[in-house]
What we know:
Elements: H1 2-25, H2 31-51, H3 54-63, H4 67-91, H5 102-114, H6 117-126, H7 133-142, E1 146-150, E2 157-161, E3 164-166, H8 169-180, H9 187-194, H10 207-219, H11 226-230, H12 232-236
Antiparallel strand pairs: 1-2, 2-3
Amino acid sequence: MLRDFLxxxxxxxxxxxxxxxxxxxCDSIDSxxxxxxxxxxxxxxxxxxxxxxxKISVQLNDEKGKNDLAIIIRNYCLHKLEExxxxxxxxxxxxxxKSPLKKEFTCLIKSIxxxxxxxxxxxxxxxxxxxxxxxxxxxxxxxxxxxSEKSKTKTGKKIFFNEIEFNSILELRKHLEENTLKDxxxxxxxxxxxxxxxxxxxxxxxKAIYSKTYDYCLNNNIKMTDYFKSxxxxxxx
Length: 237
């Protein structure tokens, strides 16, 4: 089923490219060209409906009590759909979120997300709960609010939070303790991740922490950076 899903995703990408090519050539009110646009658009919509059939596999596993497998399939498919949007945006300058296809993509993602119904109900309950402490810091990394860059003028890194530059991890830590993350035990997660220590609290090294953060962002509609999402395959291949 997943193999068919991936093949259909490739077909979908090809159809979207063909649709945009037809639209670009449609520079005049010509009934023949307009008809070709409609045909290509219908092919894209049909393929989106075919892709949605993956939810049948998720539902079957969910109903059989194989919740872990259902969640793995569901999250893998959601990740691949996000990956398609990233590829179009970064390499073809086609932003699905700002295109006429946004509504169809949104409906498809919601449909797959709800397909593991037992788990989805528990997710809705969990949204009312206070998240694990470390998620309060790791979601800041996921959104790109905390990040580092190599310094062009000196050795070491430049560290940022909300586009404010800090001279050291210690300086950032004190700022977070005093302002954003009061009464949260986040120090080791911050230091291990920014130092790329590959320690047990390094977000990009610890699969359990990364997966929890990824799932939490996905299920709470928290926008993740392309860089953060790109690490998904590292942990799941």
